[in-house]
Design a protein that fits this description.
This is DMT family transporter. The protein is mainly alpha-helical. It contains twelve helices and no strands.
């Protein structure tokens, strides 16, 4: 049985990350309207911090990374945190479909930033695949864009800041360990959320506490998978698999929240899957041709 390549491992990790983050969103929804956003952010990142610290100590890694990379680590942490709070703000003040579409611009931006700043080469199938996946996202979300402009602007800012943060994950490849990057981000986000959380803290019920713990666990392991995915494969190639979260969210919403599955949603989900398969098959064929050329 052939061993998986680094790129294939990155693809699988990105898909697993999408599943974990979709599960986290279900936990966010189930936690109800009583729990403030910053309290959810705090729980997510405090659990991520504990998980990352345990793994760092076990593997004898640097907790916060080398000094020469601190400005880039702070940049990743800042833009990542900004991406979280802006999308949470948008989700609380705009139609979910509108927010979902604008936040799904980030794979386009990751591809663009990776080509410009990381000098990655763009294959002829990546842009069509991204457009196909985005079209599927539009069908699933069915946005109206009747929301107020400010929350929509926050959703767009979230896609930009997330794009920057994800691109930096690829930059850290072979420079800073993935667990150190996660530790830095989790610590920054947890500390930054404390002042607002304390001012508006709500004691959770046992069920809400369980949801908060689920948010933290799904979020922390989703972040680990996401971080390693961007290290194992070029950002411009692996970002399209982030759209796998759309069909995952559809299925989980149907199973746990009783949300309906419309024909357009099913078609949209199929387009997302088709785009992912297209990129995977093209990458596999390209790798096969390169291997043939290397043979005498």
């Amino acid at each position: 049985m052939a061993r998986l390549t680094q790129k294939q491992k990155g693809i699988l990790l990105m898909i697993l990350s999408a599943l974990l983050f979709s599960s986290m969103q279900i936990a966010v929804h189930l936690s109800g309207d009583r729990i403030p956003v910053m309290e959810q952010v705090f729980f997510r990142n405090s659990i991520s911090l504990v998980v990352a610290l345990i793994l760092i100590r076990r593997n004898h890694l640097s907790v916060f990374g080398p000094r020469r990379y601190q400005k880039w680590l702070f940049g990743r942490s800042f833009f990542g945190f900004l991406g979280v709070i802006t999308v949470f703000y948008a989700s609380n003040n705009a139609a979910q479909a509108d927010v979902a579409i604008l936040s799904k611009l980030s794979p386009f931006l990751v591809t663009l930033f990776a080509v410009i700043f990381l000098k990655e080469k763009l294959s002829k199938v990546q842009i069509p695949a991204l457009l196909l996946a985005f079209g599927g996202a539009v069908l699933v979300a069915n946005p109206s864009f009747n929301s107020n402009l400010w929350p929509l602007a926050m959703a767009f800012i979230s896609s930009v800041t997330s794009g920057v943060a994800y691109t930096l994950l690829s930059y850290f490849k072979d420079k800073v360990d993935a667990l150190t990057v996660i530790m830095h981000f989790s610590t920054f986000s947890m500390v930054a959320s404390i002042p607002v959380m304390l001012a508006d803290f709500v004691w959770p019920t046992p069920f809400e506490l369980g949801c908060l713990l689920a948010i933290g666990l799904f979020g922390s392991f989703g972040q680990i998978c996401l971080t390693y995915a961007y290290r194992m494969a070029p950002a411009s190639e692996v970002s399209v698999y982030n759209y796998a979260g759309i069909p995952f969210s559809m299925v989980l919403g149907f199973l746990f929240l009783g949300e309906g599955l419309s024909p357009t949603s099913l078609v949209g989900g199929a387009l997302v899957v088709a785009a992912s398969v297209l990129v995977y098959l093209y990458s596999g064929r390209k790798s096969g041709k390169m291997a043939d050329k290397r043979q005498p």
